[in-house]
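As noted in the main text, all predictions were made from sequence alone. Below is one such record, for Probable arginine--tRNA ligase, cytoplasmic.
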Amino acid sequence: LRIRESKSADAIYTTQKRLEALFHVAVVTVYPMIEEFVNIVNTCDPRHGDYQCNTAMQLCQWLKKQGKSEKAVDIAALLVAALPPNDLIESTKINPIGFVNVFLRNDYVTERLTTLLRKNVPPPTIPKKFKVIVDYSSPNIAKEMHVGHLRSTIIGDSIANLLEFVGHDVLRLSHIGDWGTQFGMLIAHLQDKFPNYLSVSPPIGDLQSFYREAKVRFDDPNEPEFKKRAYNCVVELQSRNPDSIKAWTMIVDVSDRENKQVYKRLKISDKLQNRGESFYDEMMKDVVKQLDEGGHLKLEDGRKLMFVPDCPIPMTVVKSDGGFTYDTSDMATIRHRLQVEKCDWNIYVIDSGQKGHIDMVIKAAEVVGWYNPSEQKNQFVGFGLVLGEDSKKFKTRSGTTIRLSELLDEGLTRSAAKLQEKNRDKDLSKEEFEAARDAVAYGCIKYADLSKNRISDYIFSFDKMLEDRGNTAVYLLYAYTRIRAITRNSGVSAESLQEYLQATPRLPLDHPKEFKLAKKLIQFHEVILSVLESLLMNGLCDYVYELSCVFTEFYDVCYCIEKDRKTGEIVRIHKHRLLLCEATSAVMDRCFKILGITPVSKM
Ligand code: ARG
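Prediction:
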């Protein structure tokens, strides 16, 4: 809990961390036998101060176990008296149960806010920079990406953005399903349908229909020859026959092009690279050999199984026909990530249905000795199902799976209608209107997903996500454009605001609503650290929403520009309030970047 000393004078610690450090000193002063025992939380009710220290109660319990009885209120009083001199705390209040309520000093808050503004919302300091792999999106080739992959794409991209923001070295990998027996029937069908495929690139327009055609033939008892040839194609592909590889590459490319279109529309980072099952194919043999030699495999009905502690079912590492499985492939994957990529932190963003599988792979890798959990961390980051408005599996009206491209198209139509309903098409140029339409459509699809706790199933509803009230993308995008417009319309140039900022060591935040907004703004770093811990992006969404609500409270009563009621002439410009607007939009902007949402300046 102690602040780790950093060499850098620029280190940015959160208020929470600073308070923890202060209370820590108090605890060890009063109770030298105690090592670490500090618990600081944010308060929800402003009457109880800005933060609360709950340590006195914990100490009271601890002392009781040692046979000493001291009242929590008395312990709290001792702690407060032992707090070292500091520049953060304005006052403390001890409540009868023993909580210590902490009120922050105005000077401290303004100083922090000024730093935030001057440094253009820097990230908080983290103890150590890691090499992190984020496995996300990961669709299967030939089958179209579905809404589950959409969730993985949105959540994974945002987690990777967050990790990158705080300074980690992030490798974004899409573990595509691009290898396996389904390619046999696809290649066989390709050979029949486009006999010239080796010289002319086949015009497969719609890979999903192509997959379905191949599957129908494969399952058709009247086409036994096709099935046989499909099996043969698998063998040839596995032995890397050049013609088979060529056919395979063509199919993978078509699928990849389709997926890239979805990424482009959603502005998914182009650092996301495909590194799927085929990449690890050649490593699987060696993995099996290593497992065998280590005595980790058991032969059962011709299969090679690995029994992993605490796992209900064993892993099938080699099938009875000698083939490998999804388990084998993920074992090769984790070994490569830990030992060749040497990542410190390996994150899997996959639907919760695969938790058992990945947890088993992680445990198995530990058992085999591929890593030491105190040095490298593997983490499954799961999410729930996407449901339709009827709370059943998300499907089209006719009961077929929803195509992502069609879903995104519908988003655009709905968002355009929403903007038209508000007559935005009248005030905006064509380009501005289209930019707003795209921002709303894609922003709301992402935000609706990110703003819910990812663990729960989530109901996909365009009606709900396009609401312009409450914690929605539409509300926030509007709030953002309004805030941007305040300084734009004030007539005060950005340069003159900057000059004022540089010349003013302490912004005069004397109005309670100014102070409240400033406190919310400097909480940004704490929120980032806590989301980093949980990887629950809804924490960040809640924060942006609260920030925009606190901003509204401020803006309702604090004028930035005062005008004469009769003449309309400007009588006073409050530059520090304009700076509060700037800080708010800058922090919102940062949050939007992490969440993958593109704001517009006019809407
Ligand atoms: N392609 C898989 C699917 O669609 C997800 C892969 C996730 N990553 C992994 N390393 N298994 O179900």
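The first strand starts at residue 40 and ends at 42. The longest helix spans residues 242-266. These features were considered when defining construct boundaries for the mutagenesis experiments described in Section 2.9.
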